[in-house]
Amino acid sequence: xxxxxxxxxxxxxxxxxxxxxxxxxxxxxxxxxxxxxxxxxxxxxxxxxxxxxxxxxxxxxxxxxxxxxxxxxxxxxxxxxxxxxxxxxxxxxxxxxxxxxxxxxxxxxxxxxxxxxxxxxxxxxxxxxxxxxxxxxxxxxxxxxxxxxxxxxxxxxxxxxxxxxxxxxxxxxxxxxxxxxxxxxxxxxxxxxxxxxxxxxxxxxxxxxxxxxxxxxxxxxxxxxxxxxxxxxxxxxxxxxxxxxxxxxxxxxxxxxxxxxxxxxxxxxxxxxxxxxxxxxxxxxxxxxxxxxxxxxxxxxxxxxxxxxxxxxxxxxxx
Amino acid sequence: xxxxxxxxxxxxxxxxxxxxxxxxxxxxxxxxxxxxxxxxxxxxxxxxxxxxxxxxxxxxxxxxxxxxxxxxxxxxxxxxxxxxxxxxxxxxxxxxxxxxxxxxxxxxxxxxxxxxxxxxxxxxxxxxxxxxxxxxxxxxxxxxxxxxxxxxxxxxxxxxxxxxxxxxxxxxxxxxxxxxxxxxxxxxxxxxxxxxxxxxxxxxxxxxxxxxxxxxxxxxxxxxxxxxxxxxxxxxxxxxxxxxxxxxxxxxxxxxxxxxxxxxxxxxxxxxxxxxxxxxx
Lengths: 319, 281
What we know:
The structure holds two protein chains of two kinds. Chain A has a domain at 168-210 and 239-319: Outer Surface Protein A, domain 3. Chain A contains eleven helices and six strands. Chain A has helices at 23-38, 57-64, 73-95, 97-103, 105-118, 133-139, 148-166, 203-210, 265-275, 280-290, 298-311, and strands spanning 65-66, 189-190, 195-201, 244-254, 257-263, 315-316. A three-stranded antiparallel beta sheet of chain A has the order 3-4-5, with helices on both faces. In chain A, strands 2-6 form a two-stranded antiparallel sheet. In chain A, α4 (97-103) packs antiparallel against α7 (148-166). The longest helix of chain A is centred in the first third of the chain and has 23 residues, at 73-95. In chain B, the strands form three sheets. In chain B, strands 1-2-3-4-7-9-10-13 form an eight-stranded parallel barrel. Chain B has a two-stranded antiparallel sheet with strand order 5-6. In chain B, strands 11-12 form a two-stranded antiparallel sheet. In chain B, α4 (80-93) links the parallel β3 (63-66) and β4. In chain B, α5 crosses α6 (161-172). Chain B starts with 13 loop residues before the first strand and ends with a helix. The chains are: A mainly alpha, B alpha/beta. Chains A and B meet through α1, β1, α3 and α7 of A and α3, β5, β6, α5 and β8 of B. β1 of chain A pairs antiparallel with β8 (153-154) of chain B, so a sheet runs across the interface.
């Protein structure tokens, strides 16, 4: 195609600021704009007036964004700044209803803002947006005090549900696959979509109560769609927070539906040991030896556990 | 009128965006639809319910992939993980062509999850075209790039948006997904004539057209995809289809999504314009 001469409309504004004649020029412009977007909004959902180095954001925006007859450079950049935060807060709002219920909407929004400020998205998909939320809550408990442990448990549980929803799966074993293999020699792998959680609160029951009226929803990234500011607090009566209680959970999927299943402590121990690569015999022996339960027929109990786990498709054979 | 090489030489008619609230209706009622457009990233997963639904859709319907995160205009290289998963999905859907946006959205591995406008310079056009060609070499399917709606322009720009779009697609030898709603939105936000845009892009490269609704604010227009298509956009569509010929067209409706029937009815309005083109030819 024949190259066009620069048009008048492209050259109307005066500041001859940043030329983009190379990939590095482009990268610098994109860094500046991304930094503007990543900066949290003011309490009134506006763009911050001061830039990172103390300069006026208006000055920085004017260096690379053209104004028009209705909007200044600052205001045009602010549209993108706002949309960035509305879109990402909306996503966390939808994906972490449990953490939101623990903290309340305002405190959750503050947590989400602090989290996204520290951990900007490093994935092309919004599915992964909350993958470090539990870590962040552990690192900076001040955002969730006095419910930091509960909030971290809930974040861990809700992320496990994301993994269970669309995580990879391997061909699960049947009883025939391991027939004749001694438990002393048998090692198994756990499905990648299966998470085993040791929690301090019964967040599973709590989340069921929170979502009681909600319908199942799949994620839907949409093309060019614009988001609105985070919603305010719900007027519904909040669900009572759970009491402290050690809980062992398996979060998994069956027939492409996500489930969580309570486990006995020994089940959790056996499964985590198998997940670490121990033989079935060693995993069972360690769990039974450490158990305080004395009135069980361990042979029958462990067999029934394995029957259930196998029926749920939790194991696959290592290569 | 025949379709062109950039949409795989197909004549797909009127499509609808496959959206979550309609899954049950579509799988249960199996409505007659020419084709569905899927957002690639929603199905670039490793397992579970999304792929089960997709496979059921693929048993009944033709599917075309539309992406939101390839970011041909980012200074970064193409994301290899993204590309690998995209290729896996292309093989699954057999999409006759694939589209994504002429935009950027990530830098230094940090993602904005937005479709951000490009500075319209020759150097950027060359860089972008090289990335499109690299993606096509891996994906082995025709690529169409979509013009985005925008709310800001850069001082650095050396040409108009339509000149930039033309430059990129000529250098990359790829197709255009012409979003007439985005042209309208940007024309209002940047005070240009949308018909100049339509008249000056290479029409033989237009493999697909998008139509959608938008929202007006006091000082600008937002591309919200939450309304029926407005009259000025239908007029632009009529002009576009005269220039491009009978082109696969898709209605986007991404927020405040009404019933499937309502979306489908709105999409089929496009047939009125397509039929007039066929009658005139």
